Amino acid sequence: SSGINAEYGENSQSNIISMALEHIHANELILTYGHSNTVREFLLHGRKKRNFRVVVCESGPSLIGHKMAKELSEGGIETTLIADSAAFAIIHAVNKVIIGTHTIMADGALRAPNGAHQITLAAEHFSVPVIVCAALYKLSPTHLCSYDQDAFNKMIGPENMLNFSNTKLHSKVLVSNPEFDYVPSDLIELFITNTGGHAPSYLYRIVSELYHPLDNDLDNMCVEELDDENT
């Protein structure tokens, strides 16, 4: 099954990057965040026929943006790497923001890499459109509930934020290092998927086509299946 998933992922990515020239125009300044293979290939495909510049946020504390900036630069794109804190200062000059995501929620919200929310908020402040490149296998039938914050996120170790050799400091601080950010759908302009471009408001239609209504509540579905097995 892993071979099937890999093949589906490759086909989805090729469909997404084939639309690059429809959304990337000459002499644009594009900002991206983190490292996404799909976004990288999307930008590199656009570079084949268009000259544009890219600003990459370094994406602390993992600093995975350094890898993204290196790969884009090696692909012939004029690339600038900036600290995440500098995004608000530069985003007014940006034409669009293009990012990837871990999960697309049923209402068009994102479960995106930590730090993505501040980028999309800055973009909204300056009316800069945010485009998300993601295949539809990342679309989930679930929503984020206010009581489900802990289950939504994933806390990772603080070793890339706090030097473990400083033992005196450890007893005085509590380090929270979430892996993901919740990005509301109203901060997203467009999703570019393997089936084309979609507004966030249209995703409910795609969810209804891909999932059974019972899939909207996965916890209850699992409970019902267990009850059926016990009867």
Task: Tell me what you see in this structure.
- The strands form 2 sheets. The protein has a 7-stranded mixed beta sheet with strand order 3-2-1-4-7-9-10, with helices on both faces. The protein has a 3-stranded antiparallel beta sheet with strand order 5-6-8, with helices on one face.
- The chain is built from 10 helices and 10 strands.
- Helix content is 36%, strand content 17%.
- It is globular, with a radius of gyration of 19 Å.
- It has 231 residues and is an alpha/beta fold.
- It has helices at 2-17, 20-23, 37-47, 65-74, 87-90, 116-125, 149-152, 167-170, 203-210, 218-230, and strands at 29-33, 53-57, 78-82, 96-99, 103-104, 110-113, 130-133, 180-183, 190-193, 196-198.
Quick synopsis:
The protein is built from ten helices and ten strands. By secondary structure, the chain is an alpha/beta fold.
Topology, please?
Elements: H1 2-17, H2 20-23, E1 29-33, H3 37-47, E2 53-57, H4 65-74, E3 78-82, H5 87-90, E4 96-99, E5 103-104, E6 110-113, H6 116-125, E7 130-133, H7 149-152, H8 167-170, E8 180-183, E9 190-193, E10 196-198, H9 203-210, H10 218-230
Parallel strand pairs: 1-2, 1-4, 2-3, 4-7, 7-9
Antiparallel strand pairs: 5-6, 6-8, 9-10
Number of E-state strands: 10
Main sheet makeup: 7 strands, mixed
Distance between the termini: 32 Å
Main structural class: alpha/beta
Q: DSSP strand (E) fraction?
A: 15-25%
Number of helices: 10
Strand order of the largest sheet: 3-2-1-4-7-9-10
H/E element string? HHEHEHEHEEEHEHHEEEHH
Shape, per Cα inertia axes: globular
